[in-house]
Design a protein that fits this description.
Strand content: 15-25%
Helix content: 40-55%
Largest sheet: 7 strands, parallel
CATH architecture of the largest domain: 3-Layer(aba) Sandwich
CATH class of the largest domain: Alpha Beta
Radius of gyration: 22 Å
Number of helices: 17
Oligomer: single chain
Shape: globular
Distance between the termini: 32 Å
Number of strands: 13
Number of domains: 2
Length: about 400
């Protein structure tokens, strides 16, 4: 198919879902043109690969001033501020030019922040990748986020986003999300269940794979973008509620917190002699392959935890909270270890630290699980079906309107 892929940011190894969707779609023979905003702070590190894969890549810079103006303009309206963030006259002008010069079968719209960009596409059949239910996330942020700023943002946009997500299937021909919980949330808000499909994230199984590197038998690792409020809450729980229980029995256990932009609260955790906060690293694989255990203590969240899938793909045994594995079809005790309380998670950690054999078994089972359930090629095949369904729905809708006018 000839596809126009629209994103509110440049896909990359951090923006893992659109990045791998693009690569898999091209590998499967589709001709893809990418149109993306480049928001403030987005350095476009993956642009060489994107330009190599795609028929064309159109990048529209998006200034901080414009994002602020967009947010302020949305405040007195019923439109989500998060979606208004991406309004761009320059993007609209570029889209008109691209559409005038090319023919596309369908468009792919990425994320809530990209939804407003669909207004420039002259009614192309569209698949909207919501990724998660953002209103479901905002509801959880209001309950559990540690910071006042995060709660205020969620409070400001929650009802607006609920209204917007309740009408997704009026706006778009097909919708996809990463987990069944997110799908159910959109349905409960009013979107048409028949046109919402769950497509889980995959894992790049060649990039994330077990290595022969020697693992430190007392090292734990937590990975993620460490400015994100859910990760901050998770790592605070890990360092303050769980690790003291581990250190009481295994005082030499060492926790590595690996991820870009650690908040001041996360940096402060590094003052403990048994905790290292790395900040940005160019490659997380050595940290995963060198650790005895990967820990994901997510307190709240939506969608799929990529950090869990990537660790499992590396053959690193995972200990996690129930929330961190809620979107997976894993078996507790076989593919990973799940704890509902700090005490349960600490006991799982201590049990694995004491048993190299159990670590090896859980790690191998985790790798097998992602091989069986989280292929990007399979995800792209599902997307292709949605693009075709979007084209058919678009034709049916136009035919219905035409007959109504007759």
């Amino acid at each position: 198919m000839r596809l126009l892929f629209v994103s509110p940011y440049l896909p990359s190894l951090i923006r893992v879902r659109p990045y791998n969707f693009l690569r898999a779609l091209v590998r499967r023979g589709n001709q893809v043109t990418l149109m993306a905003l480049q928001p403030p702070g987005d350095e476009g590190e993956a642009l060489p690969e994107l330009r190599d894969w795609c028929e064309a890549v159109h990048v529209v810079p998006h200034s901080r001033v414009l994002t602020l103006v967009n947010g302020l303009a949305a405040l007195p309206t019923r439109f989500p501020v998060q979606a208004a963030y991406s309004r761009s006259p320059t993007f609209a002008q570029s889209a008109r030019r691209v559409l005038a010069e090319n023919r596309f079968d369908a468009a792919h719209i990425e994320h809530l922040r990209g939804a407003v960009l669909a207004e420039s596409l002259n009614g192309l059949p569209t698949v909207y990748d919501s990724v998660d239910s953002i209103s479901l996330l905002f509801g959880k942020v209001l309950q559990d986020a540690p910071g006042l700023k995060s709660r205020l943002i969620a409070l400001l946009d929650l009802e607006r986003t609920r209204r917007f997500e309740g009408a997704l299937t009026w706006r778009f021909d097909q919708v996809t999300v990463t987990s069944e919980a997110d799908r159910q949330a959109l349905i409960e808000l009013g979107s048409d269940a028949a046109r919402i499909t769950t497509i889980p994230n995959g894992v790049d199984l060649d990039y994330f794979r077990p290595t022969a590197a020697e693992r430190d038998p007392l090292r734990l690792v937590f990975t993620g973008k460490m400015s994100y409020h859910a990760n901050i809450a998770a790592v605070e729980d890990l360092a303050q509620k769980i690790m003291p229980l581990v250190w009481a029995e295994q005082p030499d256990a060492h926790l590595m917190i690996v991820g870009k932009d650690p908040s001041p609260a996360v940096q402060a955790l590094g003052q403990h002699p048994n905790i290292t906060v790395t900040g940005f690293v160019p490659d997380i694989r050595p940290y995963l392959s060198g650790a005895a255990i990967a820990v994901s203590t997510v307190r709240y969240g939506v969608g799929i935890q990529n950090k869990v899938l990537e660790a499992m793909a590396m053959g690193t045994p995972v200990v996690c909270s129930a929330q961190a594995s809620s979107a997976l079809k894993t078996e507790n005790g076989r593919d990973l270890l799940v704890g509902d309380t700090p005490e349960a998670i600490a006991q799982h950690i201590l049990g694995l630290l004491a048993s190299p054999e159990q670590r090896a078994l859980i790690g191998a089972n985790g790798r097998q699980y992602v091989e069986n359930h989280h292929s990007w090629d399979s995800a792209a095949a599902h997307l292709e079906n949605l693009y075709m369904a979007a084209v058919q729905h678009h034709r049916n809708r136009r035919g219905f309107i035409s007959k109504g006018n007759d």
